[in-house]
Sequence to fold (72 residues):
Amino acid sequence: MSQSVKLSDQLCDEARRAAELFSRSVPKQIEYWSRIGKLAEENPDLPLSFIREVQAARQDAAAGDLADYEFG
Fold:
């Protein structure tokens, strides 16, 4: 379900710039920031870089981009 919300012009402009950089739409960029912020609040002891890596790994897994890990 989608819902309209009012956002500041400044946030929308920042999201537009970031969206272009990362090849996302403005709404997807704001959703991404929202997800990352929520995860950071729920896991205050985890570094932001780790949270981003986990999100990237989940996206790879959802796309079927998996490989077996071999223990050496």
Summary: The chain has a mean pLDDT of 93. Residues 26-42 form the longest helix (17 residues). DSSP finds three helices and no strands in the chain.
